[in-house]
Amino acid sequence: MAFPPDHAFELVKSAHERGRLAHAFLISGPRGCGKERLAARIVKLLQGGGGGGGFDLFGEPVVEETPPLDELEGEWVRIVRPQSKSRRIVVDAIRELEKSLYVSSGSNWKVGVIVDADRMAAASENAFLKTLEEPPPRTLLLLLTPNPGALLPTVLSRCVRMPLTGVTDLMEGAGGELVRALDQASKGGFGSATVALTLKSVFATILEQRKAEAVEAAEAQLAEEEKALNKGFEGDYLKRREEALKAAAESEYLEERSRLFEVLQSWMADVLRCKTGVAAGLDFPLSAEQTLAVAATEDLPQLVRRMEALGELRSTLDTNAQEQLALEVGFLKAFA
């Protein structure tokens, strides 16, 4: 069961107030769903804030601002992110984190946050297991990841899992690249095969890169684990682990494909909003000039047909259809 970020925070807050706070949480969910903000709220809570700002003179609740997670790093709060060229969290970073957690803090809570925990190298995960299982007193560990399946089962079993629902930031990463391609394509207007196939090429290239990155990361993880185990594994463990990592890579790829479709459909929904005179609340306000231009040149039935074509394409790709052929036909229907 996935939780809205606010509900997840209330659960953590309630456990803390009752003295029943777990020592490690695995906070998962798509990128942009609020994992870092939730972690920041939990840190503030343990620092003696974040419990709510009370009520104003009119009885309305006072909303307490939560600073970005990185601004909360300090003597008793450590944040680890992927830093190496390969975007991995190396074992030295984990050891530095552990060293800081074992410093006496008196009555203060110590918090260790690992962002993109799925990027930990196998050696990093194995080095972290003992601390994860038996952390020092008044220590909380928060592991944030969009891809929990890439973590070792031994890491997963030592954390309270807290999957989040939430709205994904559509402009994050490749989403912004796709929006820029839509903005550029719209300058000449939709309705030509050239425009449709250009957009399909951008979409497909992003997906190919994402798949290659996910597969490469899974292979590197498996190689590191095999080396760390030094052939000391039992039975078909490595085979099962390879299957799990492949499944996690495929899941990561499908999540990215779904997010890119959300970008396409949201951008076109902005065009429909502009066409019907509801320009407020656009998903991509910085693209308003482009979406207004498309709305001015196309009639409403044609825009609806384009939206329907994108929906049909998304559904087709959920079947066993050949992906590249389906994309080509779908983009021609949607944009030619």
TrEMBL record:
Query: In this record, what's one Pfam family?
Result: DNA_pol3_delta2
Judging by the UniProt lineage, the source's domain of life is Bacteria
For this protein, the record's InterPro entries field holds: DNA_Rep/Repair_Clamp_Loader, P-loop_NTPase
Report the SUPFAM superfamilies cross-referenced here.
P-loop containing nucleoside triphosphate hydrolases
Protein's name in the database: DNA polymerase III delta prime subunit
